Amino acid sequence: MKTIIISILIIGIFAVKGKCPVANFQGNWKDQIPARAFSLKLNQASGNLKGNHCAITPDGNRIDCALDDTDVSITGTISNADSVIVTVKSFYSNTTGTAVIKKIDDNTISWRILTAPLGVFYIFNSAILIRQ
Fold first, then answer.
1. Could you list the residue range(s) of the whole structural domain that residue 77 is in?
2. Strand, helix or coil at 90?
3. Which residue from 30, 48, 32 is spatially nearest to 85, judged by alpha carbons?
4. Rounded to an integer, what distance in angstroms lies between the CA atom of residue 38 and that of residue 10?
5. Is residue 7 included in any domain, yes or no?
6. pLDDT band at 21 (very low <50, low <70, confident <90, very high)
């Protein structure tokens, strides 16, 4: 009897863990710092995240942006309720790094580079972005 109860508890824990809600990162996100331009366009389906970024330095001399909406520079798999680690590709240097996107609330996320792309890139190291 004790073994049956323990088995049921273990199955219940795995069932609940598998149903853990994931954050909604879908949408267009924009940095709120007026002196620079940084935005993300993210699509989410079945726990997978993909999209692109656009980063323009404050003086406008350097641009690291997708050429069109079909270009993908951000990919990741959402595995918990409030954050996702993504691979990010610089359009400037065509190299990849990693970043973490964290949900702050339903309309606010944070962005932070974990490992920078090799070479020259102009993606901002950190930002707070608001859903547009």
1. 23-131
2. coil
3. 48
4. 45
5. no
6. confident
